[in-house]
Structure to design on (281 residues):
C-alpha cells in the first residue's frame, strides 16, 4: 500500500503509524489457493474523531514477493562526467518522497547509468519488476529513462523495457520476466533520459522467489533400519531414487517424526541402494 502524498495522520488507516513522507507498507500472505476476487476491509482511521474522510493512494495485490529492500547492497556507476545527485540507495528505499529518487545529472552523449543490486536475502529468481516514477515526474517527464535493461548477475539479459510517458507523479509501471534461474545480483542499465541531461527514477522494485537451501541430511544405521534425519524446515519433503542416473525421484511415503527440532524417517534396511534428498513440492 502507498501512503497518500499529503502524509496526513488524520486520513491514515488504523494500525502502526507511518512516518512522513509517503512510504510503502508490505503485508505477506502465504496463500496457495486461487480466488476469483478479494475483499479488502478498512475498519477505521487512526484518529477517527478528527477525521472527515479516508484516503489511500494505491494498493497492489502481487503474486511474487519483493526481493529488493532498503537492506540490499547497491552500487551506481554513472556515465563519464555525470553526477549521482542523491545516492543510489534512494532507488530502493521504499520511500516515494520528493527527493527519494535516483537522480543523475550532467548526462552527455546518450550515456547510460548502471546500477548493481545485491539482494540481502541471497540468491533469488526474478519474476517481475516495477518502475515507479518520481514524485515530480509530471513536471519533468523528459527525465525518465529512454530504456531500462535488467541482467542476471553481470551479463545475462532478462528484460528490456521502454517506460511510457508519465500520466502523473509516482506512476507505477509493471513488467513480467520469464526466468527460472537464480542470481546473486542484478545489473540494471538506465539508458539516457528522453530529454535533457538529467535522469530520474522514483523507485525500482524487483519481485520473485528467494532460493531456499534445504537442510543437510544425516543417514545412519539403526539395527535393521536406516534413519534419515534433518533439522526441521517448513515446506520440504524427503524424496528418493534407486540410482544416481535415475531421472525420477519419488516421495518417501513414511512420514517423518519430529522430535526436538529434528525430523527422522525410519526406513527398513534392504540390499537395494537408495539416494535421498529434500525438495520443495
Amino acid at each position: 500500500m502507498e501512503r497518500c502524498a499529503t502524509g496526513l495522520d488524520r486520513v491514515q488507516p488504523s494500525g502502526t503509524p507511518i512516518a512522513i513522507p509517503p512510504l510503502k507498507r508490505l503485508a505477506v500472505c502465504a496463500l496457495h489457493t486461487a480466488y476469483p476476487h478479494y475483499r479488502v476491509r478498512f475498519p477505521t482511521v487512526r484518529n477517527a474523531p478528527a477525521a472527515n474522510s479516508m484516503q489511500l493512494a494505491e494498493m497492489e495485490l502481487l503474486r511474487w514477493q519483493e526481493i529488493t529492500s532498503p537492506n540490499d547492497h547497491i552500487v551506481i556507476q554513472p556515465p563519464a562526467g555525470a553526477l549521482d545527485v542523491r545516492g543510489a540507495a534512494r532507488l530502493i528505499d521504499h520511500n516515494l518522497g520528493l527527493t527519494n529518487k535516483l537522480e543523475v545529472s550532467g548526462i552527455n552523449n546518450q550515456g547510460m547509468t548502471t546500477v548493481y543490486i545485491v539482494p540481502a536475502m541471497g540468491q533469488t529468481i526474478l519474476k517481475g519488476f516495477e518502475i515507479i516514477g518520481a514524485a515530480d515526474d509530471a513536471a519533468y517527464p523528459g527525465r525518465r529513462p529512454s530504456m531500462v535493461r535488467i541482467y542476471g548477475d553481470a551479463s545475462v539479459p532478462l528484460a528490456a523495457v521502454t517506460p511510457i510517458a508519465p500520466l502523473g507523479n509516482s506512476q507505477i509501471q509493471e513488467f513480467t520476466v520469464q526466468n527460472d534461474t537464480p542470481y546473486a545480483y542484478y545489473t540494471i542499465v538506465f539508458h539516457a533520459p528522453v530529454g535533457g541531461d538529467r535522469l530520474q527514477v522514483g523507485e525500482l522494485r524487483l519481485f520473485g522467489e528467494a532460493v531456499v537451501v534445504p537442510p543437510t541430511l544425516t543417514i545412519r544405521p539403526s539395527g535393521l533400519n536406516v534413519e534419515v534425519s534433518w533439522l526441521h524446515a517448513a515446506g520440504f519433503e524427503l524424496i528418493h531414487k534407486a540410482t544416481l542416473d535415475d531421472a525420477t525421484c519419488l516421495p518417501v511415503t513414511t512420514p517423518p517424526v519430529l522430535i526436538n527440532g529434528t525430523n527422522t524417517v525410519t526406513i527398513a534396511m534392504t540390499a537395494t541402494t537408495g539416494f535421498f534428498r529434500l525438495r520443495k513440492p
